[in-house]
Write a structure and sequence with these properties.
This protein is an alpha+beta fold. It is built from eleven helices and ten strands. α3 runs antiparallel to α4, α5 crosses α6 and α9 runs antiparallel to α10.
């Protein structure tokens, strides 16, 4: 069976999403989905010409923003995710039509719902996965029960992070029809390539919303913080989903397809794919900045999803996956997050300083983020 595992991996992609949680797929490793043509794809040999397909209006996401702003009620999360599910369907359907294809709409399941495939009977926390066998997406993940990125956030503040999880699962669905973009491969598909491709599609979707003004920058940065946190860290196996920086990089590669350096988003400007700024009046040149930074000095424990899903992995019989989760527990890891800082630019001597970053004033070309050089080129005259 171990020798067959690499051959079966392409068929075992109804993947759990969340971080060390993603390492616990709910599909028994011994079972492969029945072979069949992807239901959501119009095969290339019979694909309709783009002109023959009914046009889908590209959504801007305003309906999601409206639901979030209205808030209220115990069903806010479910109402938001149902609207987000429809939004994702329309967004990716329009992209599919550009290739003369069409997507089938998966069924969205919540905690307590019954599933039809991939070895799952009833949906429960911490399940968040896409099952190609039954064309179902499960969203039963309680972010508050295991991620640092969600701490202290209200239900409304959590919604963009929920959107990122759903967009990731939709990414798996779209990958089967439209390919894996920069993560496509020949004969050696790995779990990591599939996961990073889904993260990349998540970045595309969030970048589109940012460009339309229907997602705030702080909402994107919260989602990006979550994406970094859920990466596998100290586990090497066939089920490895990508290190935290791998997943963040995939997300920002997708973002960069929608947002270009110098592009304005309200009062914010895109500087690099990992940094944003807005000017503050005064001299020398001063800016509020959002910069993604990785703290390798303060260690945090692995998130609790590893414990929960590691146990689930043992129950499902994936010994390698179970062992990897067990080895993770109690180990420290770096923590990456977007910081809110102030950057002061000194054009005269080509230097800069960022508040509270443990570095003194230094030459512009010493900024590893590249943000200071971008600002100098833009504003130093």
């Amino acid at each position: 069976m171990n020798r067959l595992l690499p051959l079966l991996l392409p068929f075992l992609l109804p993947l759990m999403f969340v971080g060390s949680g993603a390492r616990a797929k709910v599909v028994p490793i011994q079972r492969a989905p029945a072979k069949r043509a992807p239901a959501q794809l119009v095969p290339a040999q019979v694909a309709a010409p783009e002109s023959a397909l009914p046009k889908v209006k590209v959504p801007a996401g305003a309906e999601l923003q409206q639901i979030r702003e209205q808030g209220g009620g115990p069903d806010l999360r479910q109402r938001y995710l149902l609207a987000a599910h429809e939004f994702l369907y329309r967004y990716w359907q329009e992209e599919a039509q550009k290739q003369g294809k069409t997507l089938e709409k998966p069924e969205l399941l919540f905690a307590g719902d019954r599933a039809k495939g991939c070895g799952v009977n009833r949906i429960a926390h911490p399940m968040a996965f896409y099952c190609p066998e039954s064309l179902q997406i499960a969203m039963a993940l309680d972010l508050r029960r295991g991620t640092k990125a969600s701490r202290g956030k209200s239900e409304q503040e959590l919604l963009p992070m929920e959107l990122a999880v759903l967009a990731h699962e939709w990414g798996h669905h779209v990958n089967r029809s439209l390919g894996r973009g920069p993560y496509r491969t020949g004969f050696s598909l790995t779990v990591q390539q599939e996961e990073l491709a889904a993260d990349w599609r998540t970045g595309i979707l969030l970048g589109w919303l940012l460009s339309q003004g229907t997602l705030a920058l702080d909402d994107f940065t919260a989602a990006a913080n979550l994406m970094f946190e859920i990466g596998d860290y100290e586990r090497i196996s066939a089920q490895h989903h990508g290190y935290p920086k791998d997943r963040f990089t995939a997300l920002t590669e997708g973002l960069a397809s929608q947002l270009k350096p110098g592009q304005r988003m309200g009062e914010w400007t895109v500087d690099t794919r990992e940094s944003f700024s807005r000017p503050i009046a005064g001299a020398p040149l001063t800016y509020d900045v959002r910069r993604f930074e990785i703290d390798r000095t303060g260690q945090i424990g692995s998130n609790v999803f590893g414990v929960v899903l590691g146990a689930a992995s043992c129950i499902w019989g994936d010994r390698q996956q179970c062992l990897g989760a067990a080895l993770d527990q109690g180990k420290g890891r770096a923590y990456g997050t977007y910081t809110n800082r102030t950057l002061v630019l000194h054009c005269g001597d080509r230097s800069f300083d960022v508040t509270n970053d443990n570095f003194d004033r230094q030459p512009i070309d010493r900024d590893g983020k590249g943000q200071a050089a971008v600002l100098a080129e833009r504003d130093c005259r």
